[in-house]
Amino acid sequence: MSVIAPPGYAAIVTAAGRGTRVGDGDPKQWRDLAGRPVLEHALDAFAGFDRVILVVHRDEMDRAIDAFAGRATIVTGGETRSASVRAALDTLSGSDVTHVLIHDGARPLVDDAVIKGVIDALQSGAPAAAPALPVTDALWRGVDGRVSDSAPRDDLFRAQTPQGFALGEISDAHGQHPQDAADDVALVVRAGIPVTITPGSEDNLKITFAEDFARAERILASRKDGTMDIRMGNGFDVHALGPGDHVTLCGVRLDHDHGLVGHSDADVGMHALTDAIYGALAKGDIGRHFPPSEADWKGADSAIFLRHAADLAREHGFRLGNADVTLICEAPKIGPHAGAMQTRLAEIMNADPGRISVKATTSERLGFTGRGEGIAALATCTLLKG
């Protein structure tokens, strides 16, 4: 289950490196891990952020657009890690973003607790925060393959990501120290900005060598045992009845002595279901994705909206558990057409019709639906991952 980021928070995922230590072949972030690229696992962790910036190598730009367009703003990285982060920060200039979490795309197993720890520190007023683990092993210095000395491990930590910052602080640090650094914490420390250490995780490994893939596979397998991410969303919509000779409900045209009034085709059932899916994903409502102020959506087929919501759910790794739509009206009669509506919704969502229900009720001639002034719809859906 992804952490839902506070308003004003963005995530940057860096994936422009070459990763040569992993051996010949694709860069490590594009290699397969449990059936999906390492980078996709890393992006999944930030599905609860409204704004995600993905930084890739120029040679992988087309590949990234094909795989992740719609999930992230994709930018071309620089010659160094710091240059890549600056390229991402530039896209946030002048936006309403106040804080940013910067994560390494080669860390595919970061969990919610690690991300939440960083956010909580920033929300408490820290200008910068980053997860780390204390060093517990003995430390040696070596020369020519032999131990030459030991080193104290007191106050030493193993740095992890995501590293979080107030946007102004990290932008200023990059401006003051444009040279490359091991990570963004190193830059803000040079700029004199205090960094709060938050809890890291042993599972939050960075894929560096070929053998790291086997360990990551074991961690993913252990997480799947008995675990599932279950989301539920609700949607409600109303449209007035006006002049016309038909209504479109759940994708099916029904003859009627009035029509539904709306910016699009006013399919009240499909709108409610679309909002239910967006709600389960914590992605707002139709108006956020398809603003009614834009002429492009005037008279649009509502299948466009529902298909977008269903595709977005799949992009975030979810499948449909079930969907239930209730239409509230005195007329037209819904029962004879419920099966066709169920089939049409399943086609649009690329889902099993057996997981979709369409039914109707009246308001006993009470209210605007009872007076025949409009039609309302209520929808509920569950999404499953795992």
Inertia-based shape: elongated
Rg, rounded, reads: 25 Å
Helix share bin: 25-40%
- Remind me, CATH topology of the largest domain? Spore Coat Polysaccharide Biosynthesis Protein SpsA, Chain A
Q: How many H/I helical runs?
A: 12
Low-confidence stretches: none
Name the beta content range. Answer: 25-35%
Label the CATH architecture of the largest domain: Alpha-Beta Complex
Compute the number of strand runs: 19
Region (2-C-methyl-D-erythritol 2,4-cyclodiphosphate synthase): 231-386
InterPro entries: IspD, IspD/F, IspD/TarI, ISPD_synthase_CS, MECDP_synthase, MECDP_synthase_CS, MECDP_synthase_sf, Nucleotide-diphossugar_trans
Region (2-C-methyl-D-erythritol 4-phosphate cytidylyltransferase): 1-230
Binding site for 4-CDP-2-C-methyl-D-erythritol 2-phosphate: 237-239, 263-264, 285-287, 361-364, 368, 371
List the helices and strands and how they pair.
Elements: E1 9-15, E2 32-33, E3 36-37, H1 38-44, E4 51-56, H2 61-68, E5 73-76, H3 81-92, E6 99-104, H4 112-123, E7 128-134, E8 139-143, E9 146-151, E10 157-159, E11 163-166, H5 167-176, H6 184-190, E12 196-199, H7 212-224, E13 229-242, E14 246-249, E15 252-255, E16 259-260, H8 268-280, H9 286-289, H10 303-315, E17 319-328, H11 338-349, E18 356-361, H12 367-370, E19 374-385
Task: Report on the architecture of this protein.
A divalent metal cation binds at residues 237, 239, 271. Keywords: Isoprene biosynthesis, Lyase, Metal-binding, Multifunctional enzyme, Nucleotidyltransferase, Transferase. The chain has 386 residues and is α/β, with parallel strands linked by helices. The protein folds into two domains: 9-224, Alpha-Beta Complex (Spore Coat Polysaccharide Biosynthesis Protein SpsA, Chain A), CATH 3.90.550; 229-385, 60s Ribosomal Protein L30, Chain: A. It has helices at 38-44, 61-68, 81-92, 112-123, 167-176, 184-190, 212-224, 268-280, 286-289, 303-315, 338-349, 367-370; strands at 9-15, 32-33, 36-37, 51-56, 73-76, 99-104, 128-134, 139-143, 146-151, 157-159, 163-166, 196-199, 229-242, 246-249, 252-255, 259-260, 319-328, 356-361, 374-385. The strands form five sheets. Strands 1, 4, 5, 6, 7, 10, 11 and 12 form an eight-stranded mixed beta sheet that branches. α11 (338-349) links the parallel β17 (319-328) and β18. α5 (167-176) packs across α6 and α8 runs parallel beside α10. The longest helix is centred in the middle third of the chain and has 13 residues, at 212-224. The radius of gyration is 25 Å and the shape is elongated. The protein starts with 8 loop residues before the first strand and ends with a strand. The model has no long low-confidence stretch (mean pLDDT 92).
